[in-house]
Input
Amino acid sequence: MWGITLTFIILTFIIAISKLSSPSTTKLNLEGLDELSLIKIQSRFDTRSTIVSLSSMDTLKTNVINYYKILGEGHLGWVYGSLASRNGIYTPEEIEAMKATMVPVSEVIKEGLKKSALLIFPSFLIAMVLGTIKGVYDSKKGKRNDSSLKLISTLVGLSIPDISVVWFLQAAVILISRALEGKSLLLPVAGDATLLHSIMPIITLSVLPTMYVARITSIAIDNAYNHEYVRTAISKGSSRLRVIWVHAFRNAIVEVLGSLSSVVTTLISNLVIVEYLYYYKGLTLLMLEYYDKGESDAVTGIAITLYGIFLFFYLLIKLTKYILDSKGRRSTI
Amino acid sequence: MNTTRSLKPNKSNWATNIIKTLKKVNLPLVLGLIIVLGIVFICFWGSYYAPHNPKSGNPAIYTTDANGDRLLMVAPFPPSKTHPFGSDKLGRDILSVLMAGAKNTFYIAMLATVLRFLVATPIAFLSAFGEKISKRLIIIFSSAFTAVPSLILSIMILKLYAIRKLDVAPSIIAFVIVFTIVGWGRLASTIEEKIKDILNEDFIKGEIAIGKSKFAIATQNVLVHITPSIVIYFFLEIALVLLLLAQLGVFNVYVGNKLVAGSVDSFVPGATRTYYNFFPEWGGMMTNLRLVLSKSRLWISGFPTLAFSVSILGFNLLGQGLNHELNKRNSRFISNINKLAFNLSPMTYLNEIMNFNKKWKPVVIKTTSILLVMLLVCLPMLMDSPITKEDLLKHIGELQHSKYEGRLIGSTGHDLAADYIIQQLKKADIKPLYDGEYISEFKLEKSKNMIRTSTLHIKNSSGALLEDIKYPLAYFLKTWPSNAIETLEGEILTYEKYIDNDFDASKNYFLVLTAEQEELLLYPKIIRNVKGDGPIKGLILSDRSESRNVTSKVDLSKKGLVEIMDQNPYYSENPPPMTIHTSVDVTNKIHSLAGNTLSITSKVIDSNGLTGKNIGGIIEGKDKENPIIITTTYDYLGFHDDSKVNGVTNIVEYIGLYENGTAISSILEISERLGEINKTPKRSIVFIFIDGSAVGNEGFEHMEELDYFKENPLLLHLKYMGIVKWHRPQDSFYYNTIFDNTNSEMEGDFLLWLRRHGSHNKSHILLDKNIRHDGLMKLNKQEAVSILLQGLDNYDSQWHDGLEQQGLDSIDMTRLKNHTQYLLDSIVDMAYGHLLFY
Output
């Protein structure tokens, strides 16, 4: 019950913020307009069931309730196109013509989701695989002193902002291509037309989560080494690899899984920067573009989708953890 | 240990030795400390050592190439000796901006981090001790901002117009608040977990067993043990805030997000905007990362990115290094930190005050430092005497008086207005500018002819007056035969009679065309056949508009100035008839009176040879260089007719209150306030009231001969002060400059000064590249920085240009007051130096 209430609260919060920040609802100043123009403008805004000027909390409340009504009807609202982006006085015919260009938000989300998923899933996989390998390598493996150099390599990876990764990759591709005097770039630096276009975004997106997973893994393995049974195994003369693989790693993986939800969070939040800088029209870039155009429905729809993605991963991770964690399962049963 | 190592003869292994020692030293801590100390140094001394002005630079410079040819180099300049990190598109040295901007950047980051901790720590404590509401608050905030990326939400909130238009200081507050809202939940849950870990320790159980209260455990046990962790989290949190600041910068969201070079106003649809931050800060340097990369000017974005990366890395390393140190078994770190926390805690301070006799030393030190901090924070701002609406109204009320005759150059009213201005300057203790004289006279050389008076009478054959038509309400003249002729007389001739040749070729005639006849485009046909030296001396044409009332200066500047036919080489060969333009009604009336005599008398003044008077005053500064010159025009077109027609007063006042009357009043008021300051300014302040603006702006050329123009002056020209259109924000104040050939460094400084005083004077400065002033355009041939400031943007000023004055009500006095105060504050700041903390 608390989970549902929480979801509801967060959802309302998200809708309110997207409605609040939709520029076309705040920008218009109706003072001093003659009556006729006012009617025309209002008729324009009636089509989008939002209130023209945001003067009080009441209007915000109405906006949010209206959006819930739309959700209740089973779709996410409309992308208004030319209707939303311009302030002006239009005749009813013009408004009708503009109405014809409206697109349902769900269509837009479908497109964006495909592209974003193409970035998120590979990056997630890369982070999992490379991250655990590096984590195993980084861990002290029972030694007393750990190497500062290994730690620092992970920390540097964790600290480098994605912006600089993007800058470095794009600059490298541009400079190398120029040095090779190639007329075209080695790799596409921006855009989303082909699969090739997603290579650089995936690399950028996976750097931080990889380091994160590595750090968590190495800490988890180090913790596992403190257990009695690992020491026993070592003293009995098991090989290093066997100790790591059979004893340390298998127990550490549960802990790693527990922190994967923050990996997903990092992935989604870095998606914003990566999509923007690579001009990769996924969900977040669309969201920002629609935000600038004042498409509050689309913005809210995409925000809900992002929340959905988060919930999906969250539940997925919980489920995997439940399956893998035999100890935890036994205790819950 | 060293001895055993040195005994080994293997010298080639020095590299492995170094690696071994490096492995042992807490490398993250050392590196982090070095970077953070470097940052602290730059924060304090960066702006002092910055090689160039961080706020502005020259976007274009001349260089000489190998052949000795002069080359124009346009910013952005790539890294070179003068600009080690290159320059941005406005010519600002990137290294300097980075150095000077460090302080502001870390100030914001620190503020946001501190606020996050102030919010998160108490709630985390409450939640860890089992308080339900705070627990739920933490869950809601942390999951809401992890589910939808906090970056997106920050962008959405900070891009709101209300926040975007804020001045630097309030926008910093807005940023800090948003950063806190977005980040405190996650931080609180981290702290909460740590507290719970501590609460699970054995010694807490012991404390519970001896019956300690929860509050006592929290303050005496948990707080002490959580402090080292909080110090670590603090450094990690700064790194997170810095990252957010950098990321927001990429999306053109940065503090003081106000001035945008290029097309500024959102009223221009589809215009591409380029964002530049005029407040030295790193986040603003990340703008247009995408754009810069695509044009491969890598240095513009590369160095700020590097700066951010290094500092984020530094804080992360420091935090993790401390964490590592903390986890070592034999670490004395906790006890040291605990002592620090103990010494700084207010409880200790209280305790020390209670035992003052024993512990007077720390009490004295702590009390003085607290007092010093409070003094710095609360030091009262130096306020100027505020400008009131009444003072401004006093000048405006005086200037609209009919005795000034609209201040037309050459009239007595104009001289009276000049006297009034001088009198006010004297009263304000402003010294004369021109060798002991306030007035500098000059001869107007261009020929512009102004009609002072004109009458049009229609009489019948017996000489009785049939009709008296008013100038300029009912008609105006386009051409006039010559200065010498004052009166023209002739019979009114209709087009029908003209076509039938039913007229006497030896007499004078005025041919009248009705609106319908003019519709048939008869005018060009007639003008080809009718010559001015024939019997048809004049043409009466109807304007197709409803009435012939002159309503704007645009009209008036066309109609108030009349062309003398003899002076035009084309006309002297083919003299055309004089043309009288009237309304449809008047043409019909004249048409109906055909056969009667029409006489028109006009007095035309040629501006050539008239004397213009520029008025100037000065407050001399210590430095001769870079004087501030504040100007406006003070003459106007000069109509003031309050004759009565049918009992209704028909007032035509073109006294220029809108265009320059309010500006004169502002400058007089500013001069009065500046005169009150008993301190010599650093830079000279010059006030010039320019004459001759109605007839060709020759006053500007004369002004330019002043010596002050050779000293790299900053010129502010005011126009349309205090006028507003309903659909524009009341606080908007438009400016335009010419970036190409002026000293843009000073210009940038000036804009910064202006922006500093914007918010507390409710003024919002906006660039409108379309507003211009012909007089100023002439000045820009010199290397003066001229900035035009006006209350209306280009679009509105076209409509407002000399609108019929509807009395004082139509001037927005609040706006005029705010803008005047705004200018005064900025000028005081510029001329007298930093009176305020900044």
User: Anything to note?
Assistant: Residues 1-9, 261-272, 379-384, 550-554 of chain B have pLDDT under 50 and may be disordered.
